[in-house]
Amino acid sequence: EDKVVQSPLSLVVHEGDTVTLNCSYEVTNFRSLLWYKQEKKAPTFLFMLTSSGIEKKSGRLSSILDKKELSSILNITATQTGDSAIYLCAAQGAQKLVFGQGTRLTINP
Amino acid sequence: DAGVIQSPRHEVTEMGQEVTLRCKPISGHNSLFWYRQTMMRGLELLIYFNNNVPIDDSGMPEDRFSAKMPNASFSTLKIQPSEPRDSAVYFCASTPEASFYNEQFFGPGTRLTVL
To answer: B43 and A88: CB-CB below 8 Å?
Structure first.
């Protein structure tokens, strides 16, 4: 059965800290891995990763895929209170997108 | 440019009643997805359509759930009869056909409460 597991499930840090969120996947015919940020409303897209070892960056956020280890990490540097959200990882398999349970990140001022 | 539109935004109903959730995908997008999100189970894919045709409904929990996409600009998710365990936020998302494996654009969701 396809599955995606994220860790930690919950993380509380202070503003300015750097955080690393983890995602591991087992999906049939893996094609890509996506990261989403969900605040109070719907998920919004952050990154899509298809190639192993190539880092994608957007401001203070970056992500990389390791196909050998079937995993991905999302890094956030110099965290701000606005980064508080649930971060969802999803793996694209054979015509199906499987989501992890999410990591709830709380940034305290 | 309008995003994915869902209605209603909130629905409160009593057990046994029929519930219909509606979605209008982004114009030009050919793939549409229905998700359910709960605290316990997280985000689950229920069904998705490609060019108005259901491709995979293996995530639909049971026969009480049905989804239709009569045209490229409209889809419904119906629950009949509804049960308290159906309470969740239901999201609709769309993506251009050529970008199935890329970004999905989510609607604001419908928060369903079944009493």
So the answer is: yes
